[in-house]
Amino acid sequence: MKNGYYQTLLRIDLTARRATVEAIAEGDLKKFIGGAGLAGEILRREVPGKLPPYDPRNKVIFATGPFQGPPIAGGAKFSIVGISPVTGTFADTAGGADWGPALKDAGYDLLIIEGTADVPVSLRIMDDQVRFEKAYHLWGKDAYDTIDAVHRETGDRKLSIAAIGPAGEKKVAIACVVIDKHSFAGRCGLGAVMGSKNLKAIAVRGTKKATLHDPDGAKALMQKLSHDIQEEVKKNGFREHGTPNLCVTAEGLGDMPIKYWAGDIWPEGAKSLGAPNYTEALNAKPYPCKFCPVGCHRNIRIAEPAEYAIEAVGPEYETLGMMGTNLLIADPKAVSRANDIANRLGIDTISAGAMVGFAMECFERGWITARDTGGVEIRWGNPQALISLVKQIGNREGFGALFAEGTLKAAQKIGRGAEEIVVHCKGLDLPAHDPRACISLAPTYATGTRGACHFRGGCEDVEMGGFYIPEVGIRQGGVKFFEQENQALLAAKCQDFFALLNSLVLCAFMPDGGAMPFSGMRDLFNAITGWNYSCEDLMAAGERGFTVQRLINIRDGYDGKADTLPPKMFQPAREGFRAGKTPPLKELLGDYYKVRDWDENGIPTARALKKLDLS
Amino acid sequence: MTVTVKLMSLFEKYRPKVPGEKAVLPEGASIRDLAVQIGLPLEYLRIITVNGKQETLDRILADGDLIYFFPPAIGGG
Question: Is B66 on the interface with A (CB under 8 A)?
Fold first, then answer.
């Protein structure tokens, strides 16, 4: 097969401790490409009805695509797919570092985990060898110590390791998967599903190389694309400053969360947390995934004050938003400390920040008191409250245990109408982008197949000038802030484009930040696969993957009635760029359903499914 | 005419070109003229507001205008 795939999946049944190798039909790859697209379709076929997320029949599918294996800028990615404990339905999340290429080099496009081990185990996959190893001694260790222990015990530093921390073991719903102490497959709680299966870690190394259709052509394209991205990120500051470059712009345009979405402006906070102050105050340096010329992750070094002293992976924009401005905490060192604790315990920093924000608002309203929180004053701007609560949430202990099933369930336990102030879609906390500022986010969040997510769309970065996709008509000036025209079309196209990225699998920061053109991506895809796809063909594959995810959600009870935004998103700001504005969700959804050819209940029509060759 | 100029985030390095955040321009000058005078990279001038509203480079400025130059929102992840 000279198409960049092995057309092979590895299936692990943890209950039976059995590993089997199966073929993947080329037709499935041509339709779904790989990654979250293909894994979503497999989830639809193999989990045919609504299932509790911790049921042994739930799966955790680790998926690569044609862009893993060769040294492609942004190709050190992979997707993880399963039923989410946060939303109760489809979820995908992406990780980086070295794990995706390592699985591919071991000879597998996909790894399906099913069943439940009777005792804690870890997996070691080296080409054709698959070992089930006891993990009693790893159980209870944080994710970083786990990764270090596996390296030490195997003596193999080249193993790439995806692990869970104590949060995953204890089935904290927002538990993430930690990769190589470097990258975090953060959202939707698939780390908790790993924990429910008693699976602590998966270590992978491979020595194979997938065969490409046109290796010389692919090599030339890879080199040119990587070179151009490298030049772009040097010029635009992304290399030097990473995602914290976004803070001041996002706050200035009303996009950054302030005081759990009830605040309007906080320029001082954004300036303190964002670049260039972040870079200087934290001694931040780029920390690239394999083959990456961008290096968006940050390595930071804080010497003082002692309580925040760390040398570790630094917080990214999302964390600066959710654990910073969202809580009225302006100190990037305090946020870095909380971020590091969350990373080690293995929890999603976006949802963790949302939970602390929700708790601070409940505290302010008197719905919870220091008696409930073990004496901690959970007040706005208090970094000790943030750090304390992150520890408790990650360890499922004390007051933090209230959040073990997500923010929405915590609110239901608190009662008093607390559900009304939770800022979520389908149970997933909003990330640090505000649909009152970038209204294309309104249909993006409302219809998001994993709940509220900016990174299953990226339309807010188009609205704020970050990137364009001219090959599919997304150009500068195509939409204007707060004006309805073309916003639903932008939302749908961006969802399809990002679904494609998560199928290839390609890091979104190659086009969004690195200015990698879609045409270059297409040419590289064709050099690898030999399939001669157009940009339209690739977008159709993205749309197909997105639609399959939608169909899973509809099957599980999320139809158009669930396409909503939380009440706070209809409360306008009093000052700042978005003063007086709220998103016209009903009108935007009407436009969006028309663009998608879905009926008034948000169900894809037979015509839409036929066009995508789906049933 | 005199306008007030806010250079945000990574555009801070151009601040010495607008002492006291003020710029003096001839009548009829556009945002593009102002940007060229400051030396801002035109290719990254995608988000500009004047008196709180989004504008494009061709907008003609008036005395007393408040202009924000934001770098593009790169990497919203």
Answer: no
Is the CATH code 3.10.290.10 the one for domain A441-611? no
Pick from B12, B44, B76: which is nearest to A246 by CB? B76
Q: Where are the domains of chain A?
A: 8-205, 242-363+380-387, 441-611
**Mean pLDDT for chain A?**
97
ω into A81 cis (within 30 of 0) = no
Q: Which residues contact A254 (CB under 8 A, 6 or more apart)?
A: A264, A265, A434, A436, A437, A573, A576, A577, A578, A581
The pLDDT, as a whole number, for residue A615 is: 87
State the burial class of residue A283 (Cβ atoms within 10 Å of its Cβ: 0-12, 13-18, 19+).
middle
> How much is the average pLDDT of A534-546?
98
What is the reported pLDDT for B77?
52
Q: Write the CA distances from A281 to A18, A336, A343, integer angstroms.
A: 50, 11, 21
Residue reference for tokens 């939970």:
A355
Looking at the predicted structure, is the pLDDT value of residue B76 above 80? no
Q: List the beta bridge partners of residue A113.
A: A12, A60
What pLDDT score was predicted for residue A48? 84
Q: What distance in Å separates the CA atoms of residue A223 and residue A232, rounded to the nearest whole number? A: 14
A503 and A292 Cβ atoms separated by less than 8 Å: no
Per-residue confidence (pLDDT) for residue A543, from 0 to 100: 98
Using the Cβ of B58 and the Cβ atoms of chain A, whether some distance falls under 8 Å is answered with no
Nearest chain B alpha carbon to A453: B77
Q: Could you report the per-residue pLDDT of A123-138, keeping only the tens digit for each?
A: 999 999 999 999 999 9
Q: How many inter-chain contacts (A to B, CB under 8 Å) are there? A: 106
pLDDT surpassing 80 at residue B75? no
Distance from C-alpha of B69 to C-alpha of B60, rounded to nearest angstrom: 15
Question: What pLDDT shows up at residue A1?
Answer: 81
3-state secondary structure of A78: strand
Question: Can you tell me the distance from the alpha carbon of A445 to that of A440, in angstroms, rounded to the nearest whole number?
Answer: 9
| Interface contact B76-A461, CB threshold 8 A | yes
Arithmetic mean of pLDDT, A395-400: 98
Closest residue in B to A438 (Cα) is B73
How far apart CA B8 and CA B11 sit, in angstroms, is: 5
Can you give the pLDDT at residue B36?
Answer: 97
Residue A302, pLDDT > 60, answer: yes
Give tens-digit pLDDT for A19-65: 999 999 999 999 999 999 999 999 999 998 899 999 999 999 999 99
Amino acid present at A367 = W
CA distance A541 to A144: 36
| Contact state of B9 with A248 under an 8 Å Cβ cutoff | yes
Domain limits, chain B: 2-64
**CATH code linked to domain A8-205:** 3.60.9.10
Taking contacts as CB-CB distances below 8 angstroms, the residues of chain A near B74 are: 236-238, 245-246, 461, 466-467, 512-513
Which one of B46, B54, B74 has the shortest CB-CB distance to A245?
B74
How far is C-alpha A547 from the chain's CA centre?
18
Interface test with B, best of A184, A234, A236, A240 (most B CBs within 10 A): A236
The string of pLDDT tens digits covering residues A454-505 is: 999 899 999 999 999 999 999 999 999 999 999 999 999 999 999 999 999 9
DSSP letter for each residue of A155-194? T-TT-EEEE--HHHHTT-TTB-EEETTTEEE-GGGHHHHH
Q: Encoding tokens for residue A145?
A: 């110590």
Q: Does domain A242-363+380-387 bear CATH number 1.10.569.10?
A: yes
